[in-house]
Amino acid sequence: MARVRQSGTSLELAVRRIVDSLGTAYETNPNDLPGTPDLVNRKNMWVIFVHGCFWHAHEGCRLSTIPKRNRDFWKKKFSDNRQRDKQKIEQLKKLGYSTLIIWKCELENENELKRKIHNFLTRHESPLRIKDS
User: Fold this and answer.
1) Percent above pLDDT 90 for the chain
2) Which of 27, 50, 73, 83 has the maximum number of C-beta atoms within 10 A of its C-beta?
3) Whole-number Å distance between alpha carbons of 99 and 5
4) Cα–Cα distance between 7 and 50 in angstroms, integer?
5) Which CATH number goes with the domain that contains 40?
6) In this structure, is residue 132 part of a structural domain?
7) pTM, whole model, 2 decimals?
8) Residue 129 within any structural domain of the chain
9) Domain span at 64
10) pLDDT value, residue 126
């Protein structure tokens, strides 16, 4: 598990390309915020987390499976991951940040994902800063 990439994943890079195409400024992986969000805009107080469906146990997703071996370990691991995610989001909300979670499975429909991100950003950005897509 130590070899699993934490940042700069293909999923994260795809989300960055979408956000870049919308003309929105952000920073990546600041370690001074709870949960080390993948994308952050401190001025407009929003964060985006890019989650793998497997590691973050995306409920109801076909990509979220429990390995057959050592099931108790994996069930606890996924439960702990979900609980930690929930706590970090609550901490960010207390700091005034709005959060968006992007799941790996959402990349299957890039147009819908772009719409979702655009809608989130337009609620939190100055309308003059976002390019129409």
Assistant:
1) 70
2) 50
3) 22
4) 9
5) 3.40.960.10
6) no
7) 0.85
8) no
9) 10-124
10) 59
Chain mean pLDDT for the chain: 88
In a domain, 45, yes or no: yes
**What mean pLDDT do residues 107-126 have?**
90
Q: How far apart are CA 5 and CA 15, in angstroms?
A: 16
Q: Which of 11, 9, 7, 15 is nearest to 118 (CA)?
A: 15
Number of domains, the chain: 1
Residue 2 resides in a domain: no
Distance CA 29, CA 47 (A): 10
- Lookup: tokens for 108: 């299957």
User: pLDDT tens digits, residue range 120-129?
Assistant: 999 877 554 4
CA distances to 10, 43, 44, 61 from 4, rounded to whole Å, are: 12, 31, 31, 20
Per-residue pLDDT, averaged over 39-64, amounts to 92
CB 107 within 8 A of CB 14: yes
